[in-house]
Amino acid sequence: MKILEILRRNRAVNALVKWSRIDRLIDLCLSRFPLVRTTPNGLQYQISSASSLIVANEIFGMDCYGKAIRAVAPKTFIDLGTNVGYFPVAVAEPLRSQGFKGLCVEPNPSLSDSVRFHITTNRLENVHFRQGAVGLRGASRETDFYINPSHIASSLSNRFNPLLPVVGKTKRITVPMIDLPKEWDSLFPSERINLLKIDIEEKVGYV
Question: What is the pTM of this model?
Answer without folding.
Answer: 0.82
